[in-house]
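Quick one: structure tokens for this chain, please?
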Amino acid sequence: MSDMFCYQCQEAAHNKGCDKGGVCGKTAPVARSQDFLIWAVKGLSEAATRLREAGREVSREVNRLVTGSLFTTITNANFDEDAIRGLTREVIAMTNTLRAVLPASVKLSEAARWDSLDILDWQAKEPFIGVLSTENEDVRSLRELVVYGLKGLAAYSKHANVLMKEDEEVDAFIQSALAKTMDDSLSVADLVQLVLDTGSAGVKGMALLDEANTSAYGHPEITSVDIGVRNRPGILISGHDLKDLEMLLEQTRGQGVDVYTHSEMLPAQYYPFFKGYEHFAGNYGNAWWKQKEEFDSFNGPILMTTNCIVPPKPGYMNRLFTTGMAGYPGCKHIPGGIGERKDFSGIIALAKTCPPPTGIEQGAIIGGFAHEQVFALADKVVDAVKSGAIRKFVVMAGCDGRQNGRDYYSEFAKALPKDTVILTAGCAKYRYNKLNLGDIGGIPRVLDAGQCNDSYSLVLIALKLAEVFKVSSVNDLPIFYNIAWYEQKAVIVLLALLSLGVKNIHLGPTLPAFLSPNVAKVLAEQFGIAPNSTVEEDLKLA
């Protein structure tokens, strides 16, 4: 028996699965604790679903506990076994509370009946509830595809919740879908439909987060972002949580400390709200996987608000702080739930003792092409398409990663014909957003919509183009999809696109290890999902 098994991210060992320790850096005990948490959350979700079926209301507390637990298990989010075990206790206690009010006649799975809070009992159970406990590889593949999509959806829902936006329908779906992943009566066809339903829920979740972000901070606008440094001490904020950034900026006002964005926090630079802070500096560094070198040279403290943590080097570990669902043993965690003020005074005090960041780049990058900004340019874009100046749009959204094969995306972007425009969102953009690709009649050839969740903007842009050009489907537009993936937020983006009928998506740098040959075949035949080939071959499609 292996020490663990995990294949939820693109770096799964040998594109099969990690069985000794995660390539991401998580240990086997952490992996097993995450497996048990997911199993317990499925039990809680089943109990909540049965409660709804009985006509009873499910509390917001339950909804938030489910989404927070799922978010915690996303790749590179939380490496702290104690924190994961603590969350598991909350889940089991909540399940016990729900079960107590359910009619005695309601039949529940073992996960929903589990009531032991003894870790020794958990550890004895762990070998029997992980991914490989589903023997049929096609059923396993589809179940995990649903679970990983739900993890991504939960992350987006959690961010919306932080900004006081809720969608009970989305929460109810997450819980019912989790319960269905334990239902052995579902056929393969039923599970395929559940995958598509998960994608539809993903569209709703991304719309919810878009509304939350824009109602709080305004619609993103075209912005030139400095990638150099100032001469004062700084704090580097990474991850995705804009509310954490807001609180940090407010608490650092007038403190003689600048705040820089990193990786997926870059798109915060595009929101009008944040431009009111004079000490909001530019973006430092690149995608998440380069953080070991870049966190070293930044010199000041770093705040990780979500996932994308790389196990830190000793040299900056005492400067690395986590918050929200993120965590790493040995790093200080800043508490604070939804609606609560987080105290960043410790980070600020440390920053004042640190030298300014060491510059690693100079210049600026342009972004802020979310849906409202592109709609404002619609006439210009349409004219460029009609005149032939823009021949095709290439959607290159998704994630970046460490694999050498990801150089493909830089080479592909450089080799694209000059009459093509790249639509992007997520940290995949770091492979080409600093290349000098020029513009078409004043329209930059790289249009960055924002974070991975802002892929919703790319969907709205495609639908708007379909409307303008009066075509029946987005598949009739001059758009080629070349998507890079890494973790589970990219999975829900993919499923959302499939639910909207988008076909012929190229997915790389490798197809997910969790797709069985038969499931991969279905996706290829029904939706045209295909792996990357060579730059030369794929350019023929662009």
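The domain at 371-539 is CATH 3.40.50.2030 (Rossmann fold).
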